[in-house]
Amino acid sequence: MSTPTGAPVPPGGPAVLAVAVEHARRGVRLQVALRWVLVAFVALTVAFVPPAHDVVTCVVIAACYGLFALAIAVWVHSGGDRAVRLAWVALLGDLVVLAVLTLLTGVSTPQSWTSDVVTTGFLLLPVLAATQLRPRVCAAVVVPTVVVYLVAGIATMEANLEPWSSLLLRTAIAAGVAAGCVGLSRIQRSRVAQIGRLVQTRGELLGELGDLEQRERSSLSEHLHDGALQYVLAARMDLDDARDSGDPEAFERLDRALTETSRLLRSTVAELHPAVLAKAGLPAAVRELAAAAAARGGFAADVRADGWPADLRTTADPLLHRTARELLANVAEHARARTADVTLTFLGGRARMVVADDGVGIGPGAAGPGGGHIGLASHAVRIEAAGGCLTIAPGASSGTVVTVEVPADPV
C-alpha cells in the first residue's frame, strides 16, 4: 500500500500519513519553482551566450522548455495527488533539454562558450530531485543525470579540447552533489516521519489526558463518597442518638467520625494542593502521599531522603510530587504489593526519584501512549518536556522499579 505521493504508508497511522503527504506537496511545489530558475538559466544562456550556429534551434528549444515548465506547473496545481506522485517524471524532461542543448552547442559550435555554460545547469537537477521524499526516486533521477553529464562531456571534449582529467574532476563533483541530494532526501524523509509520529503522539496524549481528568475526578469522588461522606453520615446518626438518649458512647462515636472525616478531607486536599510541599519540602510531602497510598493499598511504605537536604526546595518539586502521587496510586490500585520504597536524591543539579515495589509488575512500555497507563504516560511526557527521563524496569525478584531523573535548580 502507498500514500497519495507514491511512497509506502509510513508506520504510525493517519496523522503520520497526513504529515508525509503535506510535506510531499511542498516538495513538489518547490520543484516547480526551481524549474523556473532552470528555464530562466537556459533562456539567458541562449540570449547572452549564443552559439555561433543553430541559434534559431536553440531559441526554439528554450521556448518549448518554457512551455513545458508552464504545462507541468498547471498540471501539478490542478492534478491533485496523482500529479504529486508523478511530478518527478518531469525531471527527466529537464535532463533531456539540457542534454540536447549541450550536444547541439558543444559539437557543432566548439568555438562558443554556450555548452560550457549549459552544462552548469546539470548541477541543479539533483537539487530538484532532492525535493522528493522518496530517496529511490531521487536516485532514479540523479544517476541518469550524472551519466548524461559524463556522456555529454565525452561527446564534446574533442571539440572543446578538454582533457580527461578536467572532465573526470567535474563529473566527480556532479556525482558528489548527486549523492548529497540523495542523502538529503533520506534525511528529509526521516524527519517527516519523526514529525508525523510526534503529531500522532500529541493527538493520543490529548485524548488520554481527557480520560485522565475524568479518571481523577472519579477517583476523587470515590474517596469522598467511600471515606469522608460515610463518616459524616455516621456522625449524623450518632448525633441523633446523642440528642435523643444523651448516651456518652454516641458522643464518642461522633467525635471519632468527625476526627476521621477531618483526616480524610485533609488528605484529599493535600493531594490536590500540597501546602506541605512548600512548607516542609518534597520528602515530607512524598511521605504524606506514601502514607495515604499505603493505607488505601494495604502495603508498607518507606521514604528515604538521605541524599536530599532537608531545607532544599527546587524547581522540579511540583513535577516530582505529581509523579510520586501517580506512581504510588498505581502501586495501591494495581501492584498488589506488600512493600513500596521511595528514594529521593539531589546531586549536581539533577533530582532523582526511585519508586520500587514488590508487586506483580508492569511492562516497560507502560509509560508510552497506548501502554495502558494513561496517567503514567502523561507524566512521562511532562518529564521529557522538562529535560528529564522516566524509565521502568523489573525489580530484582518481583515488582517494578520506576526511576525519574530531571534537571532541578534550587529556589
Automatic annotation (TrEMBL):
Location in the cell: Cell membrane
Alphabetical GO biological process terms: phosphorelay signal transduction system
SMART domains per record: HATPase_c
Positions of transmembrane segments: 32-49, 55-76, 88-107, 113-130, 137-155, 167-187
Cellular component annotations (GO), alphabetically ordered: plasma membrane
Pfam families assigned: HATPase_c
Membrane topology of the entry: Multi-pass membrane protein
InterPro entries: HATPase_C_sf, HATPase_dom, Sensor_HK_TwoCompSys
Entry keyword Kinase: yes
Gene Ontology MF terms in the entry: kinase activity
Protein name: Histidine kinase/HSP90-like ATPase domain-containing protein
